[in-house]
TrEMBL record:
Species of origin: Talaromyces rugulosus (Penicillium rugulosum)
Gene3D superfamilies: NAD(P)-binding Rossmann-like Domain
SUPFAM superfamilies: NAD(P)-binding Rossmann-fold domains
Protein name, as recorded: NmrA-like domain-containing protein
Length: 166
């Protein structure tokens, strides 16, 4: 929670600076939730993806660290950052990098489909009676429109993100 609070406060401070100082540049922010997908550097485990991989080692506590919420593929997140920086029609926007809701039940079921059986020997069971995030992130539609406009492709599906991250 402290991490989320610090990111929120940093964004508020940035927008307040823009309002008070009125600099000669444009501020856009990208707001991602849980990042899943391909790890881009061999020495960086990837925080959210590392936790997801920990399920394969029988570490069920992971599901208490990240509750059911929204995910974004790490490459979609990176693309949205490029758009926020270079997109001339993107001005003073908060870009919500929220592809879709995920549940641990979905992730564990997908892992069983994606991976060979021997890699799933210690895979934890999904939580019983798992809840599902019910909120709608209406501004996420704008982010998907930006991805389509700039890259010709919308959100990466959860199964694809997991396949590339595992």
């Amino acid at each position: 929670m402290l991490h989320c609070a610090s990111k929120t406060e940093a964004e508020r401070t940035a927008w307040k600076f823009m309002e008070e100082k009125k600099p000669d540049f444009i501020l856009n922010t990208v707001l991602p939730d849980v990042n899943l997908g391909r790890i881009l550097h061999p020495r960086i485990a990837g925080s959210s993806m590392a936790l997801t991989r920990a399920l394969l080692q029988g570490k069920s506590a992971v599901m208490n660290m990240l509750w059911t919420q929204w995910y974004v593929d790490v490459q979609d997140n990176a693309k949205l950052h490029v758009i926020a920086l270079l997109g001339i029609e993107v001005k003073s926007e908060r870009i919500f990098a929220f592809a879709d809701i995920y549940t641990w039940t979905q992730i564990i079921e997908l892992m069983h489909k994606i991976l060979p059986e021997d890699r799933c020997s210690q895979l934890v069971s999904p939580p019983e009676n798992e809840g599902r995030a019910l909120g709608k992130i209406i501004p996420a539609k704008r982010a998907e429109e930006l991805l389509l406009s700039f890259y010709g492709k919308g959100w990466t599906k959860l199964a694809t993100s997991l396949t590339e991250g595992l």
